[in-house]
Amino acid sequence: MATVTDTPIRIGVMGCAVIARTVSRAIDLAPNATIAAVASRSLEKAKTFATANGYQQSVKIHGSYESILEDPDVDALYIPLPTSLHVEWAIRAAQSGKHILLEKPVAMNVSEFDKIVAACEKNGVQIMDGTMWAHHPRTAKLKEFLFDSDRFGQLKNINSCFSLAVDEDFLKNNIRVKPNLDGLGALGDLGWYAIRAALFANNFELPKIVAASPGTVLNESGVILSCGASLSWEDGRTASIYCSFLANVGMEITAVGTNGTLCVQDFVIPFEETQATFTTCLKSGFNDPWVSRPTEHSVKTEIPQEACMVREFARLVGEIKNKGAKADGFWPNISRKTQLVVDAIKESVDKNCQQISLSGR
């Protein structure tokens, strides 16, 4: 937590995407961060965005991405640009000494992300992806239960999904359905969360085999609008993920262990900002499966999960800036693993649901 003597980390917003509105508010709510600048390819658009989001008069307005990279009063950049632009601008940000909070998916493929990470390591900057739910206090409680050998036991299977029903305008015009912008479609935008949940439950151990499920829906440009996949591990653990722009809202995790079961209904975006719930069910018998009824647990948070994310990012940047610490490799490591599974599912889709091995990747 920041103290009154700490200097807030100065964050620049590089791009005026819709999600940048949410993160702008999160930066305001985080106790150790402040919005220092905003940039767009149009000065007028940057000014309009700043006004619409209540930015302070002191916030610098940049009419180009190059300009914000050169701003000496910016410590870090939040980059919500289309995925196809990440590799160029994240590398340029790292080369400019800016720490990076990068929207997901982090790149079009893991090869691009490796180039971004190499630039970050060379320049000593922190990188973290924008997976907000990972920072909610509830997530720590989920981990506590999942890795409790008495209550949960050994993980056997996890199912995770994220679906949102979009309208016709979205399907025609949104960047998430354009191959030259966010060409990974629903897999990159929504599937990222479901994949991260599966990896989270498996302590971020990569699966051995990944295979897309039959029934993937593509648009006329070949961008994924809906898909599912199965993941399997060496010891028999399995996972299934589903993501779709064509189905009603679903944000669920169900994890089944040898002794317990975990269910979360709203893991991506909690029903409420100030608290979030999950249910657990402990070991029961074959003849009376509900001898132990599910128990609901509630976890409160002082600030929303996106502000928790910014707070942690700013803390890490502060450690580097003020104490000479090294960047935390945990975050780019789990980003890379998530991207690897995204890539494998995409490859399996392209190869008619062929099994893809992740051994050695």
Automatic annotation (TrEMBL):
Pfam families: GFO_IDH_MocA, GFO_IDH_MocA_C3
InterPro entries documented for this protein: Gfo/Idh/MocA-like_OxRdtase_N, GFO_IDH_MocA-like_dom, NAD(P)-bd_dom_sf
Domain Gfo/Idh/MocA-like oxidoreductase N-terminal: 9-128
SUPFAM superfamilies registered for this protein in UniProt: Glyceraldehyde-3-phosphate dehydrogenase-like, C-terminal domain, NAD(P)-binding Rossmann-fold domains
Domain (GFO/IDH/MocA-like oxidoreductase): residue spans on this chain: 146-262
Family, as annotated: Belongs to the Gfo/Idh/MocA family.
Protein name in UniProt: Gfo/Idh/MocA-like oxidoreductase N-terminal domain-containing protein
Organism from which the protein derives: Brassica napus
